[in-house]
Design brief:
Length: 331
């Protein structure tokens, strides 16, 4: 079991005692738990080898620099010419290329063996996973919010919509580290600018699966959690971030976006919040240097609190500024 550790900088200690408001919170939690018990437990979607990638697409992956991707990416059957905006570096006879925007490896079928066959298998597994997610029977919740789920608290279970789904304001998924969400969407999935998908109660992004027949569009400065299985394209607008996976049957488009593979547990991830109590979300535009143990992130122009998430205990040792960037050193 991987233990997720977080280091907070700056540190503020503030204890408050709640009286009457606590009753309302406990009551709401009890109702949520009751709904949870009524929903049938779901098993995770089997991604097969498609689960080895933070981004996997059939017809292309593009980036407006600088995006920050933690995890491997791959495209197939289109070749490496369909990966644009990354300034790839390919060593002769290598099965993968590298890039400053990717903390991981970049794969395409025109690279050295066994990359082509591995990608073919991964794409097949992605298609199978999509069909499994779309075909799960007996939903626990149908047409929730008539497709508008902004402001709602989603307990674990199987959700189904015959329409588009919109997230116009923050939506929260509350459950434990073993709970699973499968969300079947017959239309498009759209997250508005600045909206956030928030996890609570120990819920993990790796156990959340968004299956969308239509285009998935994540808005400017918004944050998303979970694996996206799209029958068509996935686009992340300027400064958008996701903790999860982007698996598209056409193309994935990034614009100075942050993608953190939900399987990543040892690579440090910088999260931030405007208030010390959170919620803490992936810091947009972050760039990790494992050699110097630093993370560089653009200044927000506002007060921000930062934490690091990793599979091992880490400490933020210093924060400095350089031009329009903040440089965070850890150990």
């Amino acid at each position: 079991m991987t233990k997720i550790s977080e280091t907070l900088s700056p540190i503020h200690s503030n204890t408050r005692f709640l009286t009457r408001p606590t009753i309302a919170i406990v009551t709401a939690f009890a109702l949520m738990q009751l709904t949870h018990r009524l929903a049938a437990a779901q098993a995770p979607i089997n991604l097969g080898t498609a689960g080895n990638y933070a981004i996997l697409a059939e017809s292309g992956i593009s980036s407006v620099p600088a995006s920050a991707i933690t995890g491997d990416i791959g495209v197939s059957p289109d070749d490496s010419t369909a990966i644009t905006g990354f300034s790839l570096i390919l060593t002769a006879a290598s099965p993968f290329s590298t890039c400053s925007q990717v903390t991981g490896k970049v794969y395409a079928p025109d690279y050295a063996d066994p990359t082509a066959i591995n990608l073919t298998t991964a794409i097949e597994n992605m298609l199978t996973a999509y069909d499994e997610a779309a075909g799960r029977p007996t939903p626990d919740f149908t047409e929730l919010g008539s497709g508008e789920i902004g402001g709602k608290n989603l307990v674990p279970g199987l959700y189904k919509w015959g329409t588009d789904v919109k997230i116009t304001t923050d939506v929260t998924l509350t459950g434990s580290a073993t709970d699973v969400w499968v969300l079947q969407i017959a239309g498009k999935l759209t997250e508005a600018n600045g909206a956030k998908v928030i996890l609570a109660g120990g819920a993990l992004a790796k156990n959340i699966f968004w299956q969308s027949f239509g285009v998935v569009a994540i808005g400017t400065g918004s944050h998303f959690e979970g694996t996206i299985l799209s029958h068509t394209a996935i686009t992340l607008a300027t400064g958008a971030s996701i903790n999860g996976k982007l698996l598209a049957q056409t193309a994935v488009t990034l614009d100075s976006s942050t993608v953190t593979d939900s399987n990543s547990s040892t690579t440090p991830i910088l999260v931030s919040s405007a208030v010390v109590t959170g919620p803490y979300l992936g810091a947009g535009g972050q760039s990790l240097n494992l050699a110097t143990k630093t993370i560089t992130v653009p200044k927000s122009g506002k007060t921000q609190f930062y934490r690091m998430r990793s599979g091992t205990a880490l400490t933020i040792t210093s924060t400095t500024t350089s031009g329009n960037n903040i440089i965070i050193t850890y150990n």
